[in-house]
Design goal:
By secondary structure, this protein is an all-alpha fold. Helices cover 74% and strands 0% of the residues. The protein is globular, with a radius of gyration of 21 Å. 57% of the residues are buried.
């Protein structure tokens, strides 16, 4: 293996279709940790596993988006400035980022089920404590714990997909997951807005606690173990760090990781700032904001399905990714021009339209960065997934407070963060992944 390669390097070109998914092992009994045996066949069992994985990947939008309509209320009831309340989002993201670095290697060593069940249990407890937080400082602390535990669902879901799928099939499955998990950002703000009609922001966390309990029960009884004992790593922290270092030494893997991370920063700038931009600057109600947020999420899901059903296998993943990043840049540029007044005194509809285009482009950007990165490794999928998730959430956590740096009365910081993030993502993709030179890169990375 050449120096700097991954553990089982893959060419960056889009693979030819494809392997059928390697079916998962039959479900283990509850509490066994999932001793593998026979593989799960296609059909209803496979569909159920797909929905479970979709539920796990829905953890971030559920934890974030259902809470968004209540951000202005939190600032009032806890007597905290908007920038401090936005730290509750940053803390959750930071926890999800750091938690993945721990849980990912754990799942490579002990299998997928046990770390996942433990993480979900802690997530439920931390979410319940968020509902009881007396001050904004304690809420930030509980949100950090919620993110640390919720990381298990995110990182292990991606690792399970890598266990089951390869090539074009994996890219298509990620798009399918986007359809399932995309329901969460559509309904979460709507639910959050309706919850605020009958209770306060604490009720949002009560509902999140119940959802966590239901998801944990579904995983306990229905999600099989997908990593056989012979494929697990016997080493400890040292081996995990070595695997991560080997992955990061591969320039295309790191390029996809950074491109996905900065694209996520543009997404989270929208998530963090849009409640204040839409409600405080343009005067929309929490229910109107929820409807607009849901519409944008529909655009993201629809673009993801176009990616999986029409583009993957027909157009190279690199071309689709480059197109997605270019569209994000154009949308962010339009938002910046409107926010600075260069286009005159625009109302909410043009801003909402630009945000819709930006969010829709995420539907073809995020699944392809994940697929292209995971194609670089056949082993250490948990560690690779941890690096991908950690980069995204850390960069997103940095972007979150920046969007409120100029106060609540301007959308300029949001647009600047989105534009700069998208430009950096495109630069990392072009400079490190060399999409124009796929054949040479594939030969250099191979044995």
């Amino acid at each position: 293996m050449p120096e700097g390669g991954t553990d089982t390097p893959q060419p960056t070109q889009t693979p030819q279709p494809a392997t059928t998914p390697v079916p998962a092992p039959r479900p283990a009994g509850p509490g066994t940790g999932g001793a593998p045996s026979a593989r799960v066949p296609h059909g209803r069992t496979g569909l159920l596993v797909t929905f479970v994985l979709g539920g796990l990947t829905a953890t971030p939008p559920l934890a974030m988006d259902m809470y968004l309509p209540s951000l202005p209320e939190v600032t009032r009831t806890l007597h905290a400035p908007a920038a401090t309340v936005q730290l509750t989002l940053t803390a959750c993201l930071l926890g999800m980022a750091l938690g993945q670095l721990v849980v990912g290697p754990m799942s490579d060593r002990w299998g997928r089920r046990r770390p996942l069940l433990a993480g979900l249990a802690v997530y439920v407890v931390a979410t319940a404590l968020c509902a009881l937080a007396p001050t904004v400082e304690t809420l930030v602390a509980f949100r950090l714990a919620q993110g640390l535990a919720g990381a298990a669902g995110i990182v292990i879901a991606r690792a399970v997909v890598r266990d089951l799928y390869d090539g074009v099939a994996m890219a298509r499955f990620f798009s399918t997951l986007m359809l399932i998990s995309g329901v969460a950002p559509v309904v979460a703000p709507l639910i959050g807005g309706q919850i605020l009609r009958v209770t306060d922001w604490r009720g949002v966390f009560v509902v999140l606690t119940v959802i966590g309990l239901l998801l944990g029960a579904l995983v306990w009884f229905r999600l099989p173990e997908t990593l056989e004992p012979g494929e697990r790593h016997a080493g400890g922290v040292g081996e995990a760090l070595h695997a991560m270092r080997r992955l990061l030494a591969d320039p295309p893997f790191t390029g996809y990781l950074l491109a996905g991370g900065f694209a996520f920063a543009a997404l989270f700038a929208y998530i963090s700032a849009s409640p204040f931009v839409v409600q405080e600057i343009y005067g929309a109600s929490p229910q109107t904001f929820s409807l607009l947020f849901g519409l944008n999420s529909v655009g993201l899901v629809a673009a993801g399905q176009i990616n999986g059903k029409l583009l993957v296998g027909r157009v190279s993943l690199e071309k689709v990714l480059a197109t997605g990043l270019a569209v994000i840049i154009l949308a962010a540029t339009a938002l910046l021009l409107m926010a600075t007044g260069a286009l005159g005194d625009v109302g909410l509809p043009p801003v909402a339209a630009a945000l819709f285009v930006l969010m829709s482009a995420m539907g073809i950007t995020m699944p392809n960065t994940q697929s292209l990165a995971l194609l670089r490794t056949r082993h250490s999928a948990g560690s690779a997934s941890a690096l991908l998730g950690t980069a995204s959430f850390l960069i997103g956590a940095i972007a979150s407070p920046l969007v409120g740096i100029a106060g609540e009365d301007t959308a300029v910081p949001m647009a600047v963060v989105q534009l700069v993030s998208a430009l950096v993502a495109l630069a990392c993709f072009m400079g490190m992944c060399r999409p124009w030179n796929k054949r040479a890169d594939g030969e250099g990375a191979g044995h």
